LysR family transcriptional regulator
Amino acid sequence: MRTTHLDMDALRSFVTGVDAGSFARAADRLGRSTSAVSAQLKKLEEQTGTSLVRKAGRGLTLTDSGESLLSYARRLLELNDEAVSAVRGVELEGWIRLGLQEDFGETLLPRVLGRFARAHPKVRIEGRIARNAELLEKVASGQLDLALAWDMDPAQTTGQRIASLPLCWLGAADAEPMWRADQGEPLPLAALEAPCLLRTIACEQLDRHGLSWRIAFVSPSLGGLWAATAAGLGIALRTTMGKPASVRPLDAPAYGLPALPSLGLALHRADKDIGSSGEQLNAIIVQTLRETLPADWLLP
């Protein structure tokens, strides 16, 4: 039987289209025309001998075959990019200083570091998990080369905005919160130690809607915050990134909680040359986020 070799460019367009939510947006990201991306999708369907997408209302959705191919396509592209990066950057040495939010420590960091280390084994990475203000301060002063941080004001950010993550109220997964707005009791808030951007947002939102609150639990770490929330000691405000199964988003209107804004995510870089190693790590972080986050969170 003749071996079929899947076209890597077509696979990239396919994955980008799924991640972007449409192949028109994929064309913008890839710097190609929509017709060119559509032609690549058709080519991929001819190579696989099956339909990969079908119409669903005004949009497209994956067929069963498309869902199966998507998983393989991500792995093929990751291995392809890793191989190219390794061959081109085999001589890269030195060290890079990376900072990020604790929310991404378990979900993003292992994957990013694994991909980077396999491609550039001679480069050392110094990682730092810290709060938003500290990350921004250290990248501005040159103590960090790259920092993945929350971004509240798109007009003021100096970083590359990658996504907009919905904020939500969180409670224990296996129990109903012992608070509702109509009970007249202050909302028990579980929060990180101040200063904390999300703690500030929670307090401001509750004040703005005339809801009384009290700090019921304070933790220096996100792990402690998740544990307290899971135990029912308080309601937390966070995104769902890194959320354990013991915690669930709450239906805000059902409990009389205010609706919440989304929170931007940006990759900041020091105001100096971060070198080829830094550029490679920057690209891997962005690519991994685009593969990991839901398509409707990503920014064009």
About this structure: The two ends are 42 Å apart (CA to CA). DSSP finds ten helices and twelve strands in the chain. The first helix runs from residue 8 to 20. The CA atoms of residues 10 and 43 lie 7 Å apart.
